[in-house]
Amino acid sequence: MSPLLSWTVIVLIAVTSAGILLARDWRWLIIFLSLQYVGVFLLTLQHWTLGAATVKVIAGWMSAVILGMTRSNMSEKDEGASALPQGRLFRLIAAGFVGLIAATGAPFVDSMMADAGATVSAGGMLLIGMGLLHLGVTDQPMRASIGLMTVLSGFEVIHAAVESSVLLAALLAIVNLGLALAGSYLMIASNTQETETP
Amino acid sequence: MNSPTIWIIAPAVIAVLLILVRNQRALSLIGGTAAVLLAASAQFIPTEEALKVGALSFRIESSLSVLGRELLIKPEEGPLLALIFGGTALWFFGAEASKSALRFAPLGLLITALMVASIAVEPFLFAALFIEMAVLLAVPLLAGADQPPGRGVVRFLIYQTLAMPFILISGWLLAGVEVSPGNLALAGQAAAVLGLGFAFLLAIFPLYNWIPMLLEETHPFVVGFLLWIIPTITLIFGAGFIDRYSWLRTSPELTTALQFSGLLMLVTGGLWAAFQNHLGRIMAFGSIADTGFCLLALSLDLRLGIPILFLLLPARALALAVWSLSLTILREQSKTMRFGETRGLLRRFPFASAGLVLASLSTSGLPLLAGFPARLALWDALARVSLDAALWMGIGIVGLFTASFRSLAVLSMADEYTGWEVGENWLQGIMLGLGMIGLFVLGLFPQAVQFFLTDLPAMFEHLGR
């Protein structure tokens, strides 16, 4: 992959992960999550074969669909309403700090992970950082699931550089789908009470 | 035929079939019986040996290949499987009494199968993925579809999931340390990443805030099961790390870290428990302190520490089973489980109240109860290493005792003229009665479980020898 394309993928990941953090409409969340998995696929492709890397994007999209379909059957409300802190500016600044940390930490991770590649390390670190930030500002099941999936995506990108086991790919895909299912289950459980409350 | 098929795939298939059953009693009995049979077969049926049943001769292989990797249950791991399935059987038989069998039996058996898979998978680092899958399956157990999930469930999911990446990355780093043992920087990085992974999995201070939250929000019986099976398997998984990597085994820093984190868990768990006004939160901090005991055992000379660890595990299983069942019964009476609402329940629910107090005292290490022999051995061994550490352990134990006696005081604080009655049904009474007898048997005759505990260290190549 050419350096230009590699860095384009980093930009894509930065935009999508920041979008997930800032979006209040669940539709945008799902769209950003799906696009994020395209970035994950392209970064994984640097170390894995096309077939193996495709598993990541398909599992990711399926997870996004599970979350989206569950959410679409629920009442409309502002997803970001109870997430703290509220301000988009705050989140944007926090995302900027995470980006800065990812940029400075990437060379260290690169050397630690057998020269995984600057873009792979930077992309992985960015996803992990943004996912953790997201987990830190929400306790909603859907957002928590997406935050965890973002952290795992970052880890998968970095780990793909050193491990290419088929079983690992399969198990990680199952974990991703499981996270989406667990998130959906919790969303449905949360919604039950809301619909029952007069 | 092979071991993974018998002890992983078969329970998973039974678990899936159990989803079709809608009768609490049948679920409890089938799940419990299946677990007992699996435990007995693991203990008594030898693997990798020719077996003859009448004219039929067969051999149980120890491995099964899956997608280029192996599930391997070594013959030496039979007693461990017996311990895991035996402990699971305790919960399944109690599931009907706790009225949670509908979801608990199938999902619990599936979680147990995944936990066994985590011990069996090669390379062993993939265990983190199986543990994560078990955690994901625990979510529907913890949050009923008819009630809103609390923050504890979400935190449980987040904290346990974050452990997996750390452990997988650490495995790769540890392989690097093996290749170049002189690279101290790499060893430090590997140890730090590994430590973080286990800190999340074992809910080491301060990452344990989801445990009290869960016990406030959800069914105590289910939480008790998870508080038993996840730390137990994680501790064995962790001991496997120490067994495999000689630099880790001989590292004085690891000993210090284990001792420090064990004491931190024990002291904070004990002291926090002493100041709680909620029976569920007391159990939560009791289980946290119990994990501290296990970590302290691992911090000792492992020839001594591993047998103590294995002695702690059955007592932990039984105490948590009795504790969580008692709490479940009391919770039906007092939804909040706060002291104000549970006053005097001893006279209306004598079995559940006695079970709760005895399980709590066993965790504290009261003589004659199941927890005592292992704690005595641990305290003695720790005092030989460090008197300061033994003193801190004593402080933690004092905290646990305080919590136990406060619970006893509150439960027995009834009006003077309140009469005695038995609020539990016969099944609950029998299950709790048997559990309490078990607590005394393990305390008075700790050698009763020695017949399989003595063989447990054989599953490790270096530890406990």
Defining key terms:
heterodimer; A: 198 residues; B: mainly alpha; three-stranded antiparallel sheet; two-stranded antiparallel sheet; 19 helices
Flag low-confidence runs of chain B: none
How many strand elements of chain B?
5
Instruction: Describe the main β-sheet of chain A briefly.
Output: none
Order of helices and strands of chain A: HHHHHHH
Q: Order of SSEs of chain B, N→C?
A: HHEEEEHHEHHHHHHHHHHHHHHH
What's the number of helices of chain A? 7
How many beta-strand segments of chain A?
0
| Structural class assignment of chain A | mainly alpha
- Count the domains of chain B: 2
Radius of gyration of chain B: 21 Å
Biggest β-sheet of chain B, characterized?
3 strands, antiparallel
- Mean pLDDT of chain B equals 91
Spatial gap, N to C terminus of chain A: 56 Å
From the spread of the alpha carbons, the general shape of chain A counts as globular
What is the overall number of helices of chain B?
Answer: 19
As an assembly, this protein is heterodimer
Task: Label the structural class of chain B.
Answer: mainly alpha
Could you explain the architecture of this structure?
The complex is a heterodimer of chains A (198) and B (465). By secondary structure, chain A is mainly α. Chain A has one domain. Chain A contains 7 helices and no strands. In chain A, helix 5 packs antiparallel against helix 6. With 465 residues, chain B is mainly alpha-helical. Chain B is 72% helix and 4% strand. In chain B, the strands form 2 sheets. Chain B has a 3-stranded antiparallel beta sheet. In chain B, strands 1-2 form a two-stranded antiparallel ribbon. In chain B, helix 12 runs antiparallel to helix 17 (387-411). The model of chain B has no long low-confidence stretch (mean pLDDT 91). The interface between A and B is large, with 38 and 36 residues.
